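The aim of this short unit is practical: by the end, you should be able to scan a pair of folded records and say something sensible about each. We start with the first protein, listed as its amino acid sequence and then its structure tokens.
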Amino acid sequence: MNDMRDDELPSRTAMVAQRGGGRGGSGIGLALGGGAARGLAHIPMLEVLDEMGVRPSVIAGTSMGAILGACYAAGMSGREIRDYACDLFSSRAEPIKRLLSKWPDSLASLWNPMRPAMFDAVAFFEIMMPSGLPETFEQLDTPFIAVASDFYEQEQVLLSSGALIEAVAASSALPALLRPVERDGRVLIDGGFVNPTPFDILTEKAALTVAIDVTGKPSRDGGGIPNSLDAVIGSALITLSSIIREKLKSQAPDILMRPDVNGYRALNFYKIGEILEAADKCKEPFRHALEEKLEAAAV
């Protein structure tokens, strides 16, 4: 969220990216998909954009993609997000320590095992998100859209105005772990159930669409029959992958990157170092693909 110095002004690629396209929008639309801990793989891709001096004109995110997308839209650099995430997930106990140290009320008001979902989603993210984030979408540096699912209407909900943390919480409210969020008369849960990698909502908003899909496949670590938790999460991944495959049949982003995160479970946040290292291998292919598209747009 630092001010840009004169020697950090956008490069030629960024200038090209801001030109209008033939789809009713201009600039680059960046879609960050959901994937729990696997979503940490978005961070190296954000670093590539920073290194190239390219700034998206609009960002859309689902679940973990909404969490990181909100930080990036607020002006945090990819490196700042990496540093924050590495500190937060430095050990298995660190997130819990942070919750306990920052929650002002009784623990029961944050976590209640007698409820179907344990954690209050909004309270959880108010503590876990970086301090200093804007309170509303309107205060962000870059237009941002968080994708959530309307539980009762069974439809996609796009959140782009009003309270920011509440919207991120709604987009990330995974049933049984985080309680649904009530907003504008709707009951909202994790956006991955309707749109795991939301590149399609950016088609009319940007000249060039870039999607980072971190859904992956169930981890085969250990092989054999999965335990109950892995079976539930793996089944959800099958559904998410099916949604993405069907969308790609009718419409595809200009650039689609899929970091190899198959070896990591959804809650392997404490393996952040390994996940980032795996995603770092995608940095050069992503840079090359983006340079090609930007050069083509300049012709």
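Turning to the second protein, read its sequence before its tokens, just as you did above.
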Amino acid sequence: MDVVDIARWQFGIVTVYHFLFVPLTIGLTALVAVLETSWLRTRNEQYLRLTKFFGKLLLINFAIGVVTGIVQEFQFGMNWSDYSRFVGDVFGAPLAIEGLLAFFLESTFLGLWIFGWDRLPGPLHAACMWIVHLGTLASSWFILAANSWMQHPVGYRYDPETGRAELTDFAAVMFNKVQLVTFPHVVFAAYLTAGVFLVAVAGWLHVRNSHPDDRPMYLKAVRLGAVVALVSGLAVAVSGDVQGKVMTEVQPMKMAAAEGLYQTTESCAPFSVFTLGSLDGTQERYALTVPCLLSFLGTGSFDGQIQGIDDLRETYEEEYGQDPGATYYTAADYVPVIPVTYWSFRFMIGLGMFGAGGAALVLWSTRRGRAPTGRWFRVLLVALPLGALGGNSFGWIFTEMGRQPWVVFGLMTTDRAVSPGVSATEAVISLASLTAVYAVLAVVEVRLLLSAIQGGAPEPLADHGDAGGEYPDDAPLSFAY
């Protein structure tokens, strides 16, 4: 492999690994805030215990997510300096605001929440977690705005003297049409992930039955998580449908690659649920299809036209490959890796449907106080969070791989974005080092989570039952767990 392939592998590993933590953090901040608010409204001690329990799991996930996120930003300067130079004027504003405003907002109020038990009034303490959640949403907005600009560049001008894209309209970048459909899709997927995580953890503690008196509390958490996952799953489907239509408009090659559609269809393009073909995806041997569904997904009409890969390749070669004066263009095969886009698209959809369907099954099985304990339920508890995390990952893989060979669609191809001064040997060392570190962090994360889950929800403490209770002014700050 050359340095471009190595750098792409490294960035892919770093990005997908980091995104394992992001949706769970976004969703858990909302659910922990809901649990604490429920405790303040009802004074039901079960909600307080669940707040502290899932708050601790949130902190573990947040800490590892921060570490991996910092490395991701350094990637731009390590392996992608030409890309950073080209997009720096555009990316500088949203990423700076994300770091200085949104992330500091999250960190500050999360610290107040951690050390504010018995020091802050109850409503103010709960408000801290709600503000943390708003901070995660703000972070998501600015980061997704930057990524959406890569998918659909707007609000800029190209300076041929400097070879840079320069920001001309900040509002256009912030409210890019791709951004407006991507943000709700990602956020609802985060709520889905947190919901099934709540189901899995509380369900396992319920099934384990080591503390029979706590089973009603865990069952309550199971049903809350299932409701959130089911509603969010439906919202993911609706937002994903809208996103697919915008994607077809601004990146028709991505939709064609998602289906492996080589020839343009004038109307009624079928959607293949399952296809067997050659390894490169150019020949179809067997396909299970749904008539006209692809046309509807891409255009909103069952008779809509979907452009094929071959016609789009010719169009892109004429538009981008024949301009020797634009040094930031490069002639290339403008087709992404078809098997990757095809299967990642289906795994994303399938795992999202599995999460929503599993949540519906959990709600049905726990209706009227019923408490399933069978083997199928235990398997479902393990599969649901893994499926949600996998669906998020495949969604990002599809989003980024489907854009290839562009790093900024229509402006810069990936092979022109890599750092010219980085050798293949240096890139391999960096790739191996980060992969090893991330493997260690994965072990640490899993062991910390399992250890915290094993202990279950903390027992209520008589002197720690209310945020805002009496507490000496000179007492040291302490971790509330």
